[in-house]
Amino acid sequence: MKALEESSWSPYAVGAGVGVLSWFTFLSARKALGVTTAFEGTAAALARNVAPGLTGVNEYLATVEEPPKLDWELMLNAGIVLGSFLSARASGDKGGHTVPRRWSRRFGPAASTRYAGAFVGGAAAMFGARMARGCTSGHGISGNLQLAGSSALFTPIMGLSAVVVARALFGRGRRK
Amino acid sequence: MRVDPVGKLALGLGTGVVFGVLLQKGRVAKYDVIVDQLLFRDNTVAKVMGTAVAVGAAGVYALVQSGRAKLDVKPLKVGGIVGGAGLFGAGIAVLGYCPGTSLAAVGEGRRDALAGTLGMLAGAGLFVRAYPRIKPLLEAGDYGKTTLPSATRTSPWAWIAGIATAVALGALAPSATARRPRGILGRMGGRSRSSGA
């Protein structure tokens, strides 16, 4: 597997690979690639086992259409971590900077600031993804490749919002 | 909690491993690549996603039309989609990863992505907490599991041809955004260059 030792592949080859992987998921699991549904299920399961009263999880379970389950998609998420780990190891692509260059230029080199930002950004992104029932994978790739109306609405709004916020955070002083 | 059969769980894991390898090799599990896409300085993410959609659509619609697969689309509920997409976009701009690439970045050993993934779990918990109350907002403007071809009574193949053409044109166009902020020279160039095509 010489190809695994390369540090990167052409984005077109990778995109085609993801496309073909989608054919496979439809054939093998009758599902489209998606990441965030499993986060909702995991959060609900944790809430039910740790603090059902405090989290109001029973009210959630009574309202939701499908109860969460330990399924294909949760294992898909575990697989993404594992696959990326194996790929990075095979090519010697180490994690590198704890605080990304662009972030540190804007917010300083402190790791704690970056972690806090990533945590808050992650929480907002996930809350939004669950409102919309999909993320960059579920809508951006899987929904769009099915020509879904929901994804055709999601994608431009997501893109616009992300571009506006990224410009507000990192675009300043970069344009003359 | 209901559990899928072991075979299906293993299938999910194997599919995830392949997806993770692809995301890592595609460099889309990297903070700089994602933020540079949002600033239109690097089109790697658009190339990966566009190609995935074009290739995926052709195969999936062929499978559906030959009766070997069924579509698995999310309903178009305007309230949830508009509000969710806006919040999601803002969140990934701060995080610098999206949910799938954040998991891949964790595999790559990036600690900020681990913080982001824990944040995502917290966000999912908040959603569970809020769901019963915000459900009416999320369900507002429900058009069901509609697709562009079904809503417009057109052939899916016209849409797929359109997407494939757009991706091909993007690939062939002399790329004003093919600036590679990699390496010392690239980085210095990136700093001193004025913007614009």
Summarize this structure as a short list of keywords or feature phrases.
heterodimer; B: 197 residues; mainly alpha; globular; disordered C terminus
What do these coordinates show?
The complex is a heterodimer of chains A (176) and B (197). With 176 residues, chain A is mostly helical. In chain A, 72% of the residues lie in helices and 1% in strands. With 197 residues, chain B is mainly alpha-helical. At the A-B interface, helix 1, helix 2, helix 4, strand 1 and helix 5 of A face strand 1, helix 1, helix 2, helix 3 and helix 4 of B. Strand 1 of chain A pairs parallel with strand 1 of chain B.
Secondary structure elements and their pairing?
The complex is a heterodimer of chains A (176) and B (197).
Chain A: H1 11-29, H2 36-50, H3 52-55, H4 57-63, E1 69-70, H5 72-91, H6 101-107, H7 111-132, H8 136-145, H9 149-171
Chain B: E1 2-3, H1 6-25, H2 31-38, H3 44-65, H4 78-95, H5 99-107, H6 111-138, H7 148-152, H8 156-172, H9 183-192
Helix pairs in contact in B: 1-5, 3-8, 4-6, 5-6
Uncertain segments of chain B are 183-197
Gross morphology of chain B = globular
Radius of gyration of chain B, in angstroms, nearest whole number: 20 Å
Strand-and-helix sequence of chain A, N→C?
HHHHEHHHHH
Estimate the mean pLDDT confidence of chain B. 90
Number of helices of chain B: 9
Taking the sheet with the most strands of chain B, its summary is:
none
Kindly state the number of beta strands of chain A. 1
What is the helical fraction of chain A, as a range of percent? over 70%
Structural class of chain A: mainly alpha
Computed CA radius of gyration of chain A, to the nearest angstrom = 19 Å
What share of the residues of chain B lie within helices?
55-70%
Identify the quaternary structure here. Answer: heterodimer
- How large is the share of residues in beta strands of chain A? under 5%
Task: Estimate what percentage of residues of chain B fall within beta strands.
Answer: under 5%
